[in-house]
Amino acid sequence: MSNIASLLQASLQPASRKQAEQQLHALASQQGFLAHLLTLILNGSYDHSTRLAGGIYLKNISKLRWEEDDAPLPEADKAALRSQLVPAMIALSDPTVKAIRAQIAESVALIAELDFPAKWTDLIDQLILSLSKTDYSINVGVLQTAHSIFNQWRAQVRSDELFTEINFVLSRFMQPFLNLSNQTATILLSSPAPPNIAIVTQAQIILVDIFYDFTCQDLPPGIEDAHDSFFAPQTGLFQRFMSWDPAELRSDPDDTQPSLPAQLKTKIFEIGELYIKLFPDQLSRSPAVEGFVQSVWELIGSNKLPGVADDSLVSQSLRFISTAIRSGYYKSLFSSRDTIASLVQGVIIPNIGLRDHEMEQFEDEPLEFIRLDLAFGGSASEVATRRQAAADVLQALVSSGYQTEATEIVGTWITSGLQQYNSNPAQNWKAKDSAIYLLTAVATEASTTQHGVTSTNALVDVVKFFSEHVYQDLQAPAGSIHEILYVDAIRFLLTFRNQLTRDQLLSVLPLLVRHLNADHYVTYTYAAITIDRILSIKKGTQLLFSQADIHDLAADLLNALLNKIEAAGPPEKVAENDHLMKCAMRIIVTARQTLTPVYQQVLQRLVTILGVIAKNPSNPNFDQYIFESISALLRFIVGGAPSTLPTFEQTLFGPFTFILQQDIDQYIPYVFQILAQMLEAHSTGVPSEYRSLLPFLLTPTCWQQKGSIPGLVKLLKAFLARDAAEMVKTGQITAVLAVIQQRLIPSKINDGWGFELLQSVVQHVPPAQLKQYFKAVVMTLLTRMQTSKTDKYVYLFSHFLLFTMAVNVDGLGPDYVISAIEEIQAQLWSQVLVNFIIPQVPKMPHKDRKVAAVGLIRMLTQSRIMLTPPSTQSWHPAFVSVIKLFSEPQYLAKSKDEEQNTGITEIDFEEQTAGYQAAYSRLAAADGAPVDLVAYVHDPQDFLGQALVKADPRVRGLLATGDEKVVQPFVQALVASGYSIQ
User: Fold this and answer.
1) What phi and psi, each to the nearest 5 degrees, are found at residue 569?
2) Are 765 and 720 contacting, i.e. CB atoms less than 8 angstroms apart?
3) Rounded to whole angstroms, how far apart are CA atoms 364 and 367?
């Protein structure tokens, strides 16, 4: 423990980071580690960087290892840490250690998410007791910690468990919260200003955050009773803070960070927006909304707050207006033509133009410009910039019944802007940019980030505007117009892609290829984003564009994209623009076998790029897309021309070996999946270069990284399907079973992968050779059932037993499984069947019902043990569960969509939040079509009929004594269908 500080220091150095982290990981599960770590963090004699590294490490333990199955943290240590964290927060109240305190606060929130209130019942009491009447440095720390716990409620789905927790907190925290809110507001709103006004204002901002936390799900009685003290016009705290602007807190006009009063007002507008959405009746008790709207006019009307520092306040104020318009409760406030005209002139137009700092961002921080620009696509909650917030007010008017007035009023501004541009294009390009932005806003009735505009304002002809004003910029020669206008033209196409026909979109693709070769970062990136989204358009479940559509363009598109990626230079610059890599992936997925003539060059270039970024992995999205590209190229090229497989293997084995040897843990999960994909492409046998990998794959270190496990399972399944006999001969099957029994099945996170691998073992290892291990495996499964049963585990266990009875392997019948369980304890099988399997059958998801039906049928008709008393007592309940499956036959047949969907159309990462912390980064292209595990049965009902015809006479005896209301009608129906059972 004495060298924790030096290990933390070493973890900050790239050369020693990996080794230091491994040593810390090993230490973390030792008794006393957490207490040592916290003591170090609080010890001022260590330098700040070491203490901060300790804080970050504690936060990561809280996030990743608090409930870890493998090498768990000692429970006594966890309990001790819980009791020490709040006092640690208080000890770190000094502003100089704010960054360290933030890490501790986040640790509290992470642990509270798992342990509060059940294992941490005194947390809220600790926080309340820590609040100070006078020391606001302490109060800020306590309130930040409280907010970090309560903040999680905002994103949670309503449930009894959630409301139990909220009520637990409110019963203790509400009164201290209201008291402190009143005390703090009184201090700030009185004259003269207190000397510690900044820290008191920080506390007031967090108190408003907590107010939001408390009301995000429902309206607590304490806040409902105090409604007027917050919301009343003139006298309510929120209304009084709207005009509060103390000279001591005014910031420099050139500051880019919002002042404390601006932050406070922004938070109050957020609460106003929340109340309009959730508690409109409560708001209508007084003219609160009218007061807020008046505040918006007074604060931001006629561009009174032009500074960058006030952007978030202006945006949130406008969002409040949009929400009020959309709610429909305040028609009297917004319905008159004069009001709409003054909204457009006083609020929308001043904020719609590009500002100087946005132009600087366009040139100096192009990726951030794109990120903010793209954020405005779906819901109002995605509004990020002033111009987006202003456009959202316009869209709110259009979608709330005011489109005629709004379209007419804005139309004059659009016409004026275009005329201004035409009079002097070189100088007045901003006028056209604003006109296009206004037109986009007024034309949009509904949109989503994924699909673009889904419905348009019927009073605006988008296609006509495109052909008259936008298309000319799309095809303008490079350098002939301002760069922003090229971006506007491409973005217009991106936004209204659903309004253009398939032929119109195909006709502009060559122009987008040209823009991929542009010099400006934003222009070529927007071209890539637009190509990706156009090629992703679906009509129903089918993609609109196929390989035939981009046959002639695919090679040029890929060449342009890879040129841009390769030219970026150092690893982190190469990997920063994932939009380019995503577009390359989309082209490979769309072009498929079309790329066969150039696949070798494309593959080699992808591998070269991978070699560069492997030196410093920095962007999880880029990584996902480059491996997805390699995987998709492999899938389609080898699928069409199997003779190309050796080329892929020769090209990929070198870099993949390097990744495994260097232990680049971000990439290893992908490597295993693609190795499995290549091995699966060999219809029989295992080439020697794969076989030499196998001992390494079975070492414990390989299985330590959670993200690697699914890929490893996929790879071992490929080995088992092709080389099980050899694996038995060399004893490697013992190592596979050891992984299943020791690492996967005991883990609540990985048990599903354990069963998947075990199914493969059962399917491919000859039953006679598996027999010696099978009883021990079943013991492991039953032990886990006894020690830490979960709903998921009961389902997996039941499915595995049904699968083992259903799968068509010589020597592996139902009694193979049943006898192994009976050997452990007589009559244990009947208990397992009645208590676990039969209750699970009706809960089986669609994909597993055929396996369940076939497994049960084979058990009922082929098992000798089931026909021998006392096991026969459980025969009837099992037969009834089969009948229930057949009463819902739709669950036993595949739908059309399932038949057609080969998995590849699911490569869509619009909603994905890839990250290195993600447990598993799945490659969609590496997944084949789902395999029917019981394909030998075409019609389960016919299989049942035939099985009953051939069954032991004792089966007919059992049928004859079956339930008159359930079993007899079903049997009679089978007889009527031609099965001679009776």
Assistant:
1) 100, -115
2) yes
3) 9
Rounded to whole angstroms, how far apart are CA atoms 197 and 80?
A: 36
For residue 198, what is the enclosing H or E element? helix 197-215
Instruction: List pLDDT tens digits, range 456-465.
Output: 888 999 999 9
* 3 state SS of 455: strand
CA-only gyration radius of the chain, Å: 33
Q: Say whether pLDDT at 911 is over 90.
A: no
Q: How far apart are CA 962 and CA 657, in angstroms?
A: 61
Task: Specify the pLDDT at position 377.
Answer: 52
Write down the number of H helices and E strands in the chain: 53, 4
pLDDT at 802 over 50: yes
The pLDDT of residue 910 is above 50: no
Q: In angstroms, rounded to a whole number, what is the distance separating the alpha carbons of residues 318 and 74?
A: 51
Query: The tokens of 876 are what?
Result: 């009837």
The residue type at 538: K
Residue 447 has pLDDT above 80, yes or no: no
What is the CB neighbour count within 10 angstroms for residue 313?
23
- pLDDT at residue 201 tops 50: yes
Q: To which residue do tokens 């909204």 refer?
A: 343
Angle in degrees, 0-180, between the axes of helices 356-364 and 366-375, rounded to the nearest 10: 120
CA gap 573, 22 in Å, rounded: 28
Task: Tell me what pLDDT residue 963 has.
Answer: 82
Q: Cα-flanking dihedrals φ and ψ of residue 568, to 5°?
A: -70, -25
Name every residue whose Cβ is closer than 8 Å to that of residue 953 and which is 6 or more positions away in sequence: none
pLDDT category, 314, cuts 50, 70, 90?
very high
Helix, strand, coil share (%) of the chain residues, nearest 5: 70, 0, 25
Bridge partner residues of 453 (DSSP): 447
- For every residue of 130-165, DSSP letters joined together read H--SS-HHHHHHHHHHHHHHHGGGGGSPP-HHHHHH
Contact yes or no for 420/402 (Cβ under 8 A): no
Q: What one-letter code names the amino acid at 672? A: F
Residue 898: count of CB within 10 angstroms of its CB: 12
Sign of the Cα pseudo-torsion (197, 198, 201, 203, in order): negative
Closest residue by Cα to residue 798 from 782, 787, 810, 786: 782
Identity of the residue numbered 114:
L
CB 817 within 8 A of CB 802: no
pTM: predicted TM-score of the whole model, two decimal places: 0.86
Residues 962/876, Cβ–Cβ less than 8 Å: yes
Angle, helices 386-399/429-443, rounded to nearest 10 degrees: 40
Q: Roughly how many angstroms between the first and final C-alpha of the chain, as a whole number?
A: 76
Q: H or E segment at 190? A: none
* 169 contacts: CB under 8 Å, gap ≥ 6: 124, 150
State the number of CA atoms in the 13 A half-sphere of 539 facing the CB: 8
Between the alpha carbon of residue 248 and those of residues 124, 186, 280, the distances in Å are 34, 17, 36
CA distances (Å), 90 to each of 33, 119, 213, 661, 723, in order?
22, 22, 22, 46, 61
3-class secondary-structure state, position 903: coil
